[in-house]
Amino acid sequence: GFKNMLAGSSPETLHGTGDSRGNHGLVAWRYATVEDVLFVYDGAVKPTLRAIVVTLDGEPAGIIGVSREGGIGKYFSEYRDELKPYLRSITVMRAIKASMKFVTDYPGPVYAMAGHEEGARILTRLGFTQVNGETFAWLN
DSSP letters along 70-98, please? Predict the structure, then answer.
């Protein structure tokens, strides 16, 4: 299954130099297609979303983007266990940065949840504002 990148990562996960020595998979990112979303969510239909998929050896292993749920934007991210050794890579960092285009383009506020201190720090670095506990907002 997939895990939330921002709410379930260890403190080392999303920070670092991007060093992936010792890992042998090919990590890349691209804009998610309908097929990618269906693959990630095992064929389940999801709300309207714009996302980037992070691939490992050509197969989707992580997804990050903005979904529209009841007119509200939700910044989300999930990854499979196989991607964990690569979460600090420059490729994943670039995917996160590229996903912010979806946030800035969203016509209204975008909310995100940070399940721990590291997730909160990442969201703050990206420009989100803490509004209540684990809840952060991008106030367009």
Answer: TTEEEEEEEEEGGGGGGTTSHHHHHHHHH
Give pTM, 2 decimals: 0.79
pLDDT digits (tens, 9 = 90+) for 4-13: 655 433 333 3
Residue 58 counted as domain residue: yes
Report the alpha-carbon distance of residue 9 to residue 44 in Å, rounded.
24
What's the rounded Cα separation, in Å, for the pair 74 and 61? 20
* Burial classification of residue 65, based on how many CB atoms lie within 10 Å of its CB (0-12 exposed, 13-18 middle, 19 or more buried): buried
* Contact predicate 53/62, CB 8 Å: yes
34 phi-psi bin (left φ>0, alpha ψ -120 to 50, beta other): alpha
In a domain, 140, yes or no: no
Nearest alpha carbon to residue 89 among 15, 10, 2: 15
Q: Is residue 70 part of a domain?
A: yes
Domain contains 54? yes
Q: Which domain holds residue 31?
A: 2-105
Q: Which two tokens stand for residue 1?
A: 């299954």
